[in-house]
Design brief:
By secondary structure, the chain is an alpha/beta fold. It is built from 9 helices and 15 strands. Strand 12 and strand 13 form a beta hairpin. The structure holds arginine. The site of arginine has 16 residues, from loops.
Length: 296
């Protein structure tokens, strides 16, 4: 028996479509014009992503797809998961609120199978769209939290409290990068891949304060506009739907192997590789605050 390198939650794109527009990438009319071709393409693209992740040793759990919920495929938005605890998402737009129930059932099923210990909800009516706006950084033992277009700034305190780790709020400034995961991706060895144009000056200053210059990998706008920053990093491998030459060379120089798996039909919904996955096995570590000597 081999141990999985990572465990993800995914959802088959059986009902994926662009039926409404809640971000600037989405155009239901242009989708409808070629929907048959695009539906078939999305299934192939998703299967290739699934194969790529399985190929690097990841275990993949599935949440059942459901009719009339085309964005259910974007499991990154299902919840925030750390230390076997899941905090379920609450969505900004009514178009996606119907996903809350199937995602909750999905997590109850994972709990039943012993893969998750607790399933919790955010207090009050706080909006937080799961890992899409709450990205785990294992190097800094902290969450980076995007707010503005989709998630509430006030979700930061309950996340800190529930998980007992630091959370760094970053205001998002560009409608194209409406979820933090479209603009920021922590890599395994501590580098942060990010899209400078996506953040307010204060957000950018926060990134600069927390990430040493040598660990900042700025994503060129051309790559960012193909959602290259929406990447999944497992060990030395970076899985993404797009990677231009310059970005590729920077990642390779850092020792990462880039696996490009194109996702053009999901791009029409504003989603890339990270959006289609949710990491279920992240663990925080105690005593490893940056700059402190970790207790052995
Ligand atoms: N169409 C979806 C939406 O606008 C795409 C979600 C992509 N997910 C993500 N984590 N960025 O909500």
């Amino acid at each position: 028996m081999t141990t999985a390198t990572a465990r993800f939650l995914m959802c088959r794109p059986d009902h994926f479509a662009v039926d409404y527009a809640i971000n600037p990438w989405m155009n239901p009319e242009s989708w409808a014009r070629d929907s048959k071709i695009l539906v078939n393409a999305s299934r192939r693209e998703w299967a290739a992503l699934h194969r790529t992740l399985a190929g690097i040793g990841a275990a993949i759990e599935l949440v059942p797809s459901a009719p009339h919920l085309p964005d259910l495929v974007f499991t990154a938005n299902a919840a925030v998961v750390l230390d076997r605890k899941a905090v379920l998402a609450r969505f900004r737009y009514p178009e996606r609120r119907g996903e809350e129930e199937p995602f909750e059932s999905g997590f109850r099923a994972l709990q039943g199978r012993g893969l998750i210990d607790t399933v919790a909800k955010l207090p009050g009516d706080l909006v937080l769209e799961g890992a899409g706006d709450c990205v785990w950084d294992r190097t800094r033992n902290a969450f980076w939290m995007g707010y503005g277009p989709r998630s509430d700034r006030d979700a930061v305190s309950p996340i800190k409290e529930i998980f007992g780790v630091d959370a760094i709020p970053l205001e998002l400034a560009d409608a194209r990068f409406y979820h933090l995961d479209t603009a920021l991706c922590p890599l395994s060895r501590g580098e942060i891949m990010f899209v400078p144009a996506a953040f307010t000056p204060a957000g950018l200053a926060e990134i600069h304060a927390r990430v040493a210059p040598g660990d900042r990998i700025e994503v060129p706008l051309e790559d960012a506009c193909h959602l290259a920053a929406n990447a999944v990093c497992v060990g030395d491998t970076v899985v993404t739907s797009y990677c231009g030459g310059r970005l590729h060379r920077r990642l390779a120089a850092r020792g990462y192997q880039v696996k490009v798996t194109p996702l053009p039909s999901f791009l029409r919904s504003g989603g890339g590789a990270f959006c289609l996955t949710l990491r279920l096995d992240w663990q925080s570590h105690v005593g490893a605050v940056e700059g402190n000597a970790a207790v052995a």
